[in-house]
Amino acid sequence: MRRWLVMLVWALAAAGAASVPAAAAAESHDTTQPAAPSYNQRMQWFADAKFGIFIHWGIYSVDGITESWSFFDGDIPYVDYMKQLHGFTASHYDPQAWANLIKASGARYAVLTAKHHDGVALWPTKRGLNVVKDTPAHRDLVGPFVKALRKDDLKVGLYFSLIDWSSPLYPAFTHDQTRYRIEDDPARWTRFVTYYQDQVHDLTRRYHPDLYWFDGDWEHTPAQWHTKQLREWILAHNPDAIMNSRLAGYGDYGTPEQGVPIARPPYKYWELCLTMNNSWGWQPHDHHFKSVDELIRILADTAGMGGNLLLDIGPRADGTIPKIESDTLKQIGQWLGKNGEAIYGTVAGIPKDYYEGASTLSKDRKTLYLFIDGNPEGPVLVKGLTNRVVRAWVVGNGTILSPQRVGATLGTAPALLYVHVPADELDPQHVTAIALQLDGPIKLYRDTAKPAQLDPDEPTMRTVN
To answer: pTM for the whole thing?
Structure first.
């Protein structure tokens, strides 16, 4: 009897639902959510930014030694490395001043080392070491910086090391000491995976970063790290987020380190991370700083190959930034203030068979930007350009230039294009950028000896959708 009553109730409920007007029913059941952004949509701000600032800051700045690696490689004992916890004060840390300096540099985003391989977190993570409970700093150093960056309309990146050489749950300790092998104690490794992913979850919920800069993936496989699941979790909770390549096969863009590539890396999106001297983080003995001109040339070369430059600075333990580093950032910003049009929002330029220097193109591929190093002897030469130049000018000051075609053509090959730039119009200290506005999207003459690759949709490194 009870079963028949239940069936009768269900039938009456169904009939009642059928009598609801279609529009009302549609309204009551409308659970449509905005579509998740596509890969290219998520990456667009990054592709346009071109310049970011990396910040290596941690307890290693107390003694000015190599971050994490100094104890891992055996340069100093672990116990001596960890003594630096007692000297990390952040007493002069001014996150808004940091953000303002980054803004003045012309960078469009910054990446802060929330946790390096030593396992010392800069925020009050509930698990593991952190500067709030374990150092005299006694405060969250990530949150105020995130807030300051967003106040200055800058994108937020957080560096996170997957490995944690201080955690008793992690297999590796130093280069010659291992706590255990995963195959011998898989349950212990599972607890570590939960530990590190809980930290990433915490960063996400607290700060909602625009960019996750992972590191340390080389020690284990994607399956061991469970990086597929981590990526899926991040995008479920932070749909606009992007991740670098060091997520064991599940990143969005490539991250070559230190050496400027000779040819474009095989990624649709990529970023060169580079130290200002030879060290990550503050090391007072390292005086091998790159000049402003060298860094601007690297920025132009990187943008010319379709990439970004992530330039590192290293604050001291008290939170102050060395003057040589802040001065360098300000000078780069001054150059970008005049020449940013040739950097921001551009795509890779033309092959060096056509112009022997760095170049970029506007997004519509109708303006070609050429970067000139120093004071060249004679005019700038561009080969194989089939377009007509509608207008040419010096980007930094707007001076109009008069390009000339020289020499007879052979068949369909265009004549050489020479652009004379008066010496007094060249940047006296740094790189000069000139612009050539074309009569349409750029077209370069191709012959069988020198094929040009101008496909704007180069292959991506991503292995997942």
So the answer is: 0.89
